[in-house]
Specification:
alpha+beta; binds ligand MTE; MsrP
């Protein structure tokens, strides 16, 4: 892994742990899992895993912030305050309004959990709750998440490369796409019981990526943010983060990843195909039928009336790393 020493100056990372060394990871993870499940219920009380060890023992759950993936100089941005990232959410299983997931997901039980890797692979496997934190190298990466409703955030995610999971499964030559699925559990997810609350979606929530997109080093499976386990409203215990695509691709609370031959169906495309395509690459030149996609409101420290409107960048600013994936494709048609 390449650690650049430059261009971190503009990222305000004071809330993010700066240095971690590897200690007894499994122990830490266990403690973290316990804490995660218990304290996520109250966002303000959610303790950092690093609080467990006092000041002199910096624990090392994940590697140092991966500067290779943090926003570069021209786009160096202020982190969105944690409080805003965990209270302004889209998670329709817990209500279609932004404030609802933080309220309605508080009792969501994520341990035990099973994430099943299946389909066109030589080595299908299942990850349980502990495995999510210990089977792969966790890193912290600062990524922008840009939603179709034209707001965006800059979040320090903790996760591992989706590519590592793909390699472990050893896809067959027939595996062309990955089909992701969120938990279906109407008892726990009120939006799955009540169609109106759940925004009229037919659950489970589904998403998909092409194999080369899944292998791109920017795509991660995230298990935490701001040095803590993911709170339920942000997709505990594990969610996808694809920073060059509109936020709806970043499916939460994933229980299945199936390798398939054909492009899989995806929730928002099923609901409104003229508004939400399979690719969903952030593209300021292609308007949503009901609004422009040319600019976004960056959620920072300002109040709701703060004017943080900025121009949207193609591929959410990650064009250098991902534009090549779509060479020769008409991205106006394949939105
Ligand atoms: N995953 C599931 N299962 N259900 C959802 O409703 N919403 C998506 C995505 N993943 C959603 C989901 C949308 S529209 C966005 S913008 C992001 O999650 C929001 O992620 P955040 O709440 O962590 O910011």
């Amino acid at each position: 892994m390449l650690i650049k020493s430059t261009n971190r100056s503009d990222s305000k990372e004071s809330d993010v742990t700066d240095e971690k060394i590897y200690l007894n990871r499994r122990e830490i993870v266990k403690n973290m899992g316990f804490l995660g499940a218990g304290t996520l219920l109250s966002t303000s009380a959610a303790a950092s895993v690093f609080d467990l060890f006092g000041d002199d023992t910096p624990p090392a759950l994940f590697k140092q912030t991966n500067l290779e993936f943090t926003p570069d100089k021209p786009f160096a941005e202020e982190l969105t305050p944690e409080e805003k990232t965990i209270t302004h959410n889209n998670f329709y299983e817990f209500g279609a309004q932004k404030h609802q997931p933080a309220e309605l997901a508080q009792g969501f039980k994520v341990d035990p959990w099973q994430l099943k890797i299946s389909g066109e692979v030589e080595k299908p496997f299942t990850l349980d709750y502990d495995d999510l934190y210990s089977s792969f190298d966790l890193e912290e990466r600062i990524y922008r998440l840009r939603c179709v409703e034209a707001w965006s955030m800059v979040v320090p995610w903790i996760g591992f490369s989706l590519a590592d999971l793909v390699k472990k499964a050893k896809p067959t030559s027939k595996a062309k796409y990955l089909a992701f699925e969120t938990l279906y559990d109407p008892k726990q997810m009120p939006g799955q019981r009540n169609r109106r609350l759940g925004g009229g979606i037919d659950y489970p929530y589904l998403e998909g990526l092409r194999m080369d997109e899944a292998m791109n080093p920017l795509a991660i499976m995230s298990v935490g943010l701001y040095g803590k386990t993911l709170p339920p409203q942000n997709g505990a215990p594990i969610r996808l983060v694809v920073p060059w695509k509109y936020g709806f691709k970043s499916i939460k609370s994933v229980v299945g990843i199936k390798f398939v031959e054909k492009q899989p169906p995806t929730t928002w495309n099923i609901l409104a195909a003229n508004e939400y395509g399979f690719y969903a690459n952030v593209n300021p030149d292609v308007d949503h039928p009901r609004w422009s996609q040319a600019s976004e409101r960056r959620i920072t420290t300002g109040g709701i009336f703060a004017q943080n409107r900025i121009a949207t960048l193609p591929f959410n600013g990650y064009g250098d790393q991902v534009a090549g994936l779509y060479k020769g494709m008409n991205l106006r048609k394949l939105y």
